[in-house]
Design goal:
The protein is of the alpha/beta class and about 450 residues long. It contains 12 helices and 8 strands.
């Protein structure tokens, strides 16, 4: 009976550990994406405007790192009583949140697995119920978890894990996510990703555009959008599914001229020349300290005749603010803020496009330098799709985290086995000495 109970506890522990590690990792390496999802939750609760962006970002990094670390601690059975209680409390909270989501449905995707796996709110609630049951099993019998590392060295694994995932988040925030699970990854052909296969019936949408004029907001559709009235400022857009059909990987890529309302999407995607896109969801909150590096790329593009355009969801005031503080002379077009946040996790960020294919992406912290821009882009490494593959990045993570942790576990288990062998030999020697003494006493 105890053996069966131990098996059940360790199966539940493994299920929790794997889920938490995967969920925590994919969110940790996309801290801005997780922040955007936290903002959606806060907005749905009606408190979004009261929580500053920096606090949302701090919560994004902290919660993701905690989730990943808890998963590793569960996997290695470190601090078994405390970790099992903390995991259960976290799942009670998460299950309550997803129960509310499944009933009220204020947002469409919970974001629990980042952009890797998308679950409906009801699917997320069911998943959390299963995990909560598993956590209850573990918390009732925490000491039945098989330990992989001794108490003496548990602190090393704990701090090393938290430090690793924290550094991974900061690195992905400063540059770009280590792994890009969104459809706008480097090498993606946007035009092809928007196509619907022959014979497939596309999903039918109703698109609503929200514009503002003289402080008054109004909704428009495709038929009555005020293309010829520049006094209306584009604010946002949302879509409603009328009939579900085939969903292409990319379905919302739309860039317009805010002055004329002209759709420039196809002209941009069909252009075989290299094109630089400076993307900012909102210029009002964009990092302006890097405008000197942006200007270097802009001057390079002008010198070699490459188009350089800005794309933002900001209104006229936001665009004017950006031009005033940076001296930007390039044209700036309009697009949905959510689209721009999905394309690149940086505000602003730079995209190199050619024939509809994403050739390269840069965070505003990692823009090309003047010494790198010494020839036509086709002759430079910057103008080629980077050769570093997903497998090389996985290998880097294996080398930086999994290998050291595995060596620690191996050394710890070797030390524990050696200690056990020494104790067993000492006990055996003591027993033999006692037996010899008893034999001598009998002979005497």
């Amino acid at each position: 009976m105890n053996k069966t109970k131990a098996v059940i506890v360790n199966v539940c522990r493994a299920l929790l550990a794997i889920t938490f590690i995967f969920s925590g990792f994919v969110k940790s390496i996309d801290p801005l994406g997780t922040q955007y999802k936290i903002a959606d939750y806060l907005e749905a609760m009606g408190v979004g405007e009261h929580v500053p962006d920096w606090l949302q970002l701090f919560a994004s990094i902290g919660l993701s790192a905690t989730e990943f670390t808890l998963g590793v601690l569960l996997l290695l059975a470190i601090r078994r009583r405390f970790v099992s209680k903390l995991t259960t409390l976290l799942l009670v909270f998460m299950t309550a949140i997803t129960a509310w989501l499944s009933v009220s449905n204020p947002i469409q995707d919970c974001g629990c697995f980042g952009d890797v796996i998308h679950l409906s709110n009801m699917e997320t609630f069911a998943k959390n119920v299963v995990l909560l049951v598993a956590a209850c099993v573990v918390v009732r019998n925490p000491l039945l978890q098989v330990r992989f590392i001794s108490k003496t060295n548990q602190w090393i694994a704990t701090y090393f894990t938290f430090l690793f995932i924290f550094i991974a988040s900061i690195w992905s925030l400063y540059r770009l996510p280590v792994f890009d699970f969104r459809p706008y990854y480097i090498g993606q052909n946007i035009k092809k990703a928007m196509e619907v296969p022959k014979g497939a019936e596309p999903t039918q949408y109703k698109t609503t555009f929200i514009c503002e004029k003289n402080g008054v907001r109004k909704e428009f559709d495709e038929n009555n959008y005020p293309y010829n009235d520049s006094t209306w400022v584009f604010i946002d857009t949302h879509q409603e599914i009328l009939k579900q059909g085939y969903e292409p990987p990319i379905k919302d890529f739309l860039i317009t001229d805010p002055e004329t309302g002209d759709d420039i999407t196809q002209a941009l995607l069909n252009d075989t020349a290299y094109t630089f896109l400076l993307i900012s969801p909102h210029f009002e909150t964009a990092a302006d300290a890097s405008f000197g590096d942006i200007d270097v790329v802009y001057e390079y593009a002008k010198e070699y005749g490459y188009p350089f355009i800005g794309v933002s969801a900001s209104g006229e005031a936001g665009v004017s603010h950006w031009r005033n503080i940076t001296g930007a002379e390039y044209p700036i077009y309009a697009a949905d803020a959510t689209l721009l946040k999905t394309i690149i996790r940086s505000n602003p960020g730079l995209i190199l496009l050619r024939g509809g294919r994403i050739i390269n992406k840069w965070s505003h912290n990692d823009l090309p330098k003047q010494e790198e821009l010494t020839a036509p882009i086709a002759e430079l490494p910057l103008g080629q799709i980077p050769a570093n593959s997903v497998w090389s990045r996985i290998g880097f993570i294996l080398l930086c985290y999994i290998l050291p942790l595995s060596l620690l576990i191996l050394a710890d288990r070797t030390w524990a086995w050696t200690k056990w062998m020494r104790r067993r030999n000492q006990l055996r020697a003591a027993n033999e000495a006692r037996a010899m003494e008893e034999e001598e006493n009998l002979n005497a």
